[in-house]
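Model: You mentioned two targets. I'll fold them one after the other.
Researcher: Yes, keep them separate.
Model: Target one:
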Amino acid sequence: MTPMTGMPQLSGNVANITRITGMDRTDLDTTMRLLKVWRAKYPRNLLRTRFYDAKQRFRNLQIAVPNTVAEKIGNVVGWPQKSVRALADKSVFEGFETPSNDPHGIAAIMADNELTADVSEAIISCYKHSCSFLTIDYDPYDTTGDRIMITPRSADWSAALWDTQRRRIAAALTITNADQNGNITAFNVWLPGHNYAVEATSMGMWHAERQNNRLDRVAVVPFAYDKQMDRPFGRSRINRTLMNLTDMAVRTMVRMEASAEFYATPKLWFLGLDSSAFENGTWSSLVSDINAISRDIDNNIPELKQVQQASMSPHGAMLETIAMLASAETDIPAENLGIRLSNPTSAEALAASENALTRVADRQNRVFGQQLMNALSMAVQLRDNTPAPPDLTGVRPLWAPTRVVSDAARADYYTKVAGALDGYADSDVALAKLGMSHEEISSFRAHQQALRAKQRLDQLRSQTTGGQQSTETNTVEDK
């Protein structure tokens, strides 16, 4: 299949894709449906990307601040990105637990794809756009056919159709290339048992290369956030409520900035004073060490009036209220949204406030884990070219703990459970509960194995030495 080469902003113009040589008529109809889905979803996906990158268009109400001022102030509210990253940081994929001999070569698949990093990218994209995808295919640059690629795909460059009966993807499309104007020049179509690599020709036509496989399903798995029966591809963490709250917060900050600029210099009114008194310049007159103003021609003293600076407290209070609403919407503590409460929050209280987010992360990790197992099963089947999926009994995905627990609490839990449950102390589950990562557990097991081998060798040497000494003693006694 054609590899993805870049991520420019796409134009959304797919009207010229009406005929593709080398593609079956039924598959062409499915491709047209996929392109229609992508074109319908792309504007909203692009909008959420702009909110995530803090590049969304400022929506000014044009009541308190004119557009000429508002357009000069950048976006300083990063709550959409915080909403995505706060949850994504709790989903850290560490690899697969495999049987000791790794009969399916899962470690090689992990190494070839740098899957721990790619899964992290797919999860961030999933929370940003509601879903992302992993595609499973042969490496186009590997002539042996033994190397399998598991590639993350974002929703703004992809589309999929859902099979409600089998509850899995029925067909998918992934855009792989576009020109400098954002026009699509290449894309892949994923169907059960075969795929297409479609490219634009120099004559403005489209041509497809078909690739068959032995899978009974589409070689694409979805990562979805908050998947539901009526929303199989989930929903975005950057939902409409959060986008509106972000706009409100930005407008509040703009009003604060405009107010600060307006009152940055003293506003003085002189009643009964001729403008010639400031002939040397208004600012230099105001900041002079000594200022004197004479009486006017009627012997009256000019009257001075000063405009008091407006308080920033109403703006700050409104911003705090908006942040509280955003905290309730995203399950992120208000302190993490930049709001400092009157009473400092303890570490225990802050950890407890993230319980809701932790529960969401635990649920999502189970969903992601199932899709990773599906992707791994298809990867092994493609590599081995077998008609049936492999038996992956004993293989399971591993995730870093979602909850922050102190070392003392871990040690106390480990000691109590190990004392009540035989064999628990030396199990991988216990070591993971103790806070050790998958790599640390593997290193520890290797160290244990080396110690056992050394102990066994010492025992053999001891037995050999003891036997020789016993033989020499018997010989002396016989003499």
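Model: Target two:
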Amino acid sequence: DAVDAAQLVFITVPDDTIPVVAQQIAWRQDHCVVHCSGATEVLALSSASACGAEIGGFHPLQLFADPAVALNHMVGSSVAIEASGRLDTELRRLAKGVGYRVIELPPGVRGIYHAATNYAASFVLSLLGEACDLWRSFGINEENALAALLPLTRGTVEAAVAAGLPGALAGPFSRGDAKVVAIHLQNLSAIGDVHVQLYRNLSMRQLALARRRGNLSDEVLAQLTAAINPNTKTSM
């Protein structure tokens, strides 16, 4: 009944059930049908388009674990829109009303797009979890670790807002301090290889930011590379 009375319909069910729900509805040519998934392609709504409806995607880049917190951060956040014609116009109007910035998504990229959003959101929690695990190894519990580490996280994000990713880089990779990187790896190896491998993988991304920053010489960059992977020959 709700669909029959509407022209713009949002299907906001779990990803696996989007096509199932769409197939159960009698769509009309004047319908516009949208899902709010980040990872599922708009073609999941193909049963609606087969009936002449326009289909699209509207994915807010916002965490809704706590709705009250999410509401306070909606203005200035972004929404990824994949649509065309009158549906695109309507979704942009809705986004403007909420205060969202619009990201245009082309068809077929939603898996990569959504994977990337996890790096900026939930994966940050995983990195904080790793930091807490390391501090727990010398007796500091998670509550106290987070009390000390979260201000660093906030400061890093604020620095990125002000200066961009390379400009916000801090620590040994901003200074070219290969000896500190070697000390990190030496001490992590005593705890476990899994910690060493994660540090090395992240350090290579840090090295890429250091190169973009442009304040370190080729020689220093080579020393950092050798510190990360001492058994690998590198050329600059």
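Researcher: Noted. Anything on target two?
Model: The chain has a mean pLDDT of 95.
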